[in-house]
User: Fold these one by one.
Assistant:
Number 1:
Amino acid sequence: MFDFGFGELLVIGIVALIVIGPKDLPGVFRELGRFTGKVRRMAREFSRAMEDAADEAGVKDAAKTFRDATNPSKMGLNKLSEAADKFEKWDPTKPSKKAADAGPETAKLSEERAEAARKIREYSAEKANERIAAEKAAEEAGLAADAGAPEPETKGEA
């Protein structure tokens, strides 16, 4: 509260020694210490009373709610990241655990779907490779045709 340095306290002590006198100085310091203790006790009681009033008004609950809102684990972001991890690790070619537990017919359907998905991917990859090869062939044919063709004349050249 007050910012007194050692030098300032020394000056105050010397002035008090001169004004009060050496005989009464210990009693004055004792009373000053008691007064300081009472002030501190009153400040502590005031702080406690304010905290109790804040508890009754629900300020601590609101503060806890705000802290929880900024905490990722309380907001459910951990569950979201777990779900994202599960999705990244998911392999559609493998039958799920639920499908294996459901029964043989469901497992059979799951295997059939996985086989159909594999065939679709293979066919798509084959068609993509054919398209890329066709584009390369067309590009090479275009380059060969450009190399053998005369350059077009532009107006203004003589």
Number 2:
Amino acid sequence: MSKKSNKIISFIFKLIVITFCGILLKKITLYLNTKELIKLNIIKNTGAAFSFLNDNTFTLIIISFLLLGFVFYYIYINIEEFDIYNSIAFLFLTSGAILNLSERIIYGRVDDFIELPLINFPVFNYYDIMITIGVFLLIIKILKK
């Protein structure tokens, strides 16, 4: 098996593990909320960030598929040059995007539930955090060049 094939298989395995961890973390958090051990503000978000394209689920699904397709193509073409930094960034970015997309497909919305009452910021979810971490790491990587 080629080095590229090994890297792709490794990436896919890690992507599955991180995606599963994201689902598990959300399920545990929502369970704790039902037991009133933590307090969450659950918002059923039919739009994207900051209510962009609110109630346009089909459009958001198409945009998400196109962007994920582009990201996966980029990963496939460049995976041999990836260092650990690139791998982690793209794993978080793609996992978060897949999880948000899957919720949008299954439920027609994304459930946001993390609220920061000390600052005026929209409610968000773990998957948004995963995407943000991935993008942040990529920005740092680009700025370091």
